[in-house]
Amino acid sequence: MPNFPLSDIRPGMSVCDRDSERIGTITRVHQLGRVVGVPPVEEGYVQVDPSLRDLGKELYIPLDVIGECSGDTCFLNLSSDEIKGKGWNRKPANI
């Protein structure tokens, strides 16, 4: 679960990987609700318009890989190379 309020995430924010390489811009936040667990986690995605061509036309990045948001930027817990193999360029069925 992110250690910041999910309300801090909003369209127009930049998304960077863990090495501060820019991934793209958030176009929409899909918040799906709470998932029962210990601790409970917020389920959802940020829809991102990628700035890196090899990532596809759109990305749907799970909220739980956002490690930190500061100012107008969210930082992921993954590198851009790790993101490429996740299949996040396909829209999840639950949104």
Keywords:
six-stranded mixed sheet, mainly beta, globular, 95 residues, SH3 type barrels
Structure description:
By secondary structure, the chain is mainly beta. It is 5% helix and 42% strand. It has a single domain (6-81), classed as SH3 type barrels, CATH 2.30.30.240. The mean pLDDT is 85.
Secondary structure topology:
Elements: E1 14-16, E2 22-35, E3 41-50, E4 59-62, E5 66-70, E6 73-76, H1 80-84
Parallel strand pairs: 1-6
Antiparallel strand pairs: 1-2, 2-3, 3-4, 5-6
Low-confidence stretches: none
Helix content: under 10%
Helical segment count: 1
Fraction of residues in β-strands: 35-45%
Q: In CATH, what is the class?
A: Mainly Beta
The largest beta-sheet arranges its strands as 4-3-2-1-6-5
Distance between the termini: 19 Å
- Based on CA atoms alone, the radius of gyration comes out at 12 Å
Overall structural domain count: 1
Order of helices and strands: EEEEEEH
Structural class: mainly beta
The appropriate CATH architecture is: Roll
